[in-house]
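Why do we bother with a discrete structure alphabet at all? Because it lets us treat a fold like text: something you can write down, compare, and reason about line by line. To make this less abstract, here is a complete entry for Crp/Fnr family transcriptional regulator. Read it the way you would read a sentence in a foreign language you are learning: slowly, and without expecting to understand everything at once.
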Amino acid sequence: MTILSNRKRDSELISDELAELLTSIGTTRKIKAHSYLFREGDEASELYLITSGRYQISKLTSDGKELYLRICKEKDIIGELILYAYQPKYMLSALSLTDSEVMAVKVDVLEQKLLKNPELTFEFMRWFSIHVRRLQTKIADLVINGKKGALYSTLIRLSNSYGIKTKEGVLIDLHLTNNELAKFCSATRESINRMLSDLRKKKVISIQEDGKILIHDLEFFRSFIGCDQCPIEVCNID
């Protein structure tokens, strides 16, 4: 079997110099499983480099539902949307899925350091733009293609992040309940049940005994949403 994803983690997309800057001004912090590192709307003063563990990044929709956006892990940077903002507040929430450790970086200190080094500032903003584009494409999938398109794009993103190529297709090597999958799509569990059942009847997917999804026809999803074949740094779930 072949693992499809070769996406570099956030700290691997930046130079050694910028990575060293973040760690040099950061403070190590241990976080217990199932606790929030930050919540949407909280006053923001830090961004975080994950050194171990896994986080669920989410946002509340206008009707109060929780929309899952990313699953982040070691070497990823979270809370980055607050940089250079006036009286910043976190735009998203970060829930620890496991016991974890992060490097907390004070934003005001980082901003001062970056102002003294234009090359690093440009590099950071270029990396930041990837995150913004990733968020924009995720929201666009929901708005333009509806619940079904949101599910299809989520399955594509999951395959890019956790896909393993097999003789039968692409196995998503991550177990998600239908309720969890629904939260990636701003949908109900019942609607996800119906859509997955329809996909199974069409033989586009099958469900393994352990609950993992095996995709037999990725092109079915790509054709439906008019996939732009975005680079894996943008089209992923992590």
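What the structure line is telling us, in plain words: The mean pLDDT is 85. The chain is about 40% helix and 25% strand.
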